């Protein structure tokens, strides 16, 4: 099995047909290795969310393959893909999307119920512990801060022990301090303090400060890969983004 938790191979996404057809992503070849935190960055409309949704199996590519935890998603039926997505991926959005009438614990248990399992309390508590909210299990969302609600959303995404956690602008609605707290939670998932099983996180962000929390930043421009940075600093990320915004900035379209 490759060291990639998820890999996109010659992936493209097109919308429309005939004369109105547009390719919004690809072809893209990129892997996200196990136990890593990767940020995906690029100008608005460059295809970041499309890449994330295809990688997570929320959207189907027009061509190419998505290999998730060793399984080619594109070879699966819709039902099989949904089943695998529910167990092998977790997804966190900018909006926390918690159900207001349910407690934190009940919200976190939802993916297990959707997968047809009776949620074991210990697993739900473990997920809440991972995000530092074990003591708020009985709280409803309106009694929690924005940062706490987003951490519940992360716990909900983690409860099935996914191979990859995808996050689309997870700090977008948070202030600087709470955003940083969330990023520390995400880093801890990957770098496994206390000997927990390391995870893999892929997140989309617009913010160089957020991207600098990642081990690696992958850049997109006009739907194509436009290079990457390892051990990024906010300054280096911001410089790359500025360069990408310039007319004629080069896109690589190369393997990452
Ligand atoms: N359902 C759709 N039909 C047609 N075009 C679409 C559809 N969804 C997305 N697009 C187009 O695909 C391109 C990539 O969109 P995407 O949301 O992936 O970009 P993004 O980099 O995440 O942008 P942003 O940073 O603004 O969120 C955009 O030009 C968008 O208009």
Percent helix: 25-40%
Structural class estimated from helices and strands: alpha/beta
User: What would the average pLDDT be, to the nearest integer?
Assistant: 91
How many β-strands, per DSSP? 10
**Radius of gyration over C-alpha positions, nearest whole angstrom:** 18 Å
Q: Which CATH class of the domain at 4-96 and 166-245?
A: Alpha Beta
Determine the CATH superfamily of the domain at 4-96 and 166-245. Answer: P-loop containing nucleotide triphosphate hydrolases
Small molecules (ligands, ions, cofactors) in the structure: adenosine-5'-triphosphate
Flag low-confidence runs: 250-254
CATH architecture of the domain at 4-96 and 166-245, please? 3-Layer(aba) Sandwich
Strand content: 15-25%
Number of helices: 8
Strand order of the largest sheet: 6-7-8-3-9-10
Keywords: ATP-binding, Nucleotide-binding, Transport
Organism: Streptomyces marokkonensis
Domain ABC transporter: 6-247
GO molecular function, one term: ATP binding
List the helices and strands and how they pair.
Blueprint: E1 4-15, E2 22-33, E3 37-41, H1 48-55, E4 63-68, E5 71-72, H2 78-88, E6 89-92, H3 104-114, H4 121-130, H5 146-158, E7 164-168, H6 176-191, E8 201-204, H7 208-211, E9 216-221, E10 224-230, H8 234-245
Helix pairs in contact: 3-4, 3-5, 4-5, 5-6
The structure holds adenosine-5'-triphosphate (ATP).
Adenosine-5'-triphosphate is lined by residues 15, 24, 42, 44-50.
Pfam families: ABC_tran (PF00005)
Domain ABC transporter: 6-247
Protein name: ABC transporter ATP-binding protein
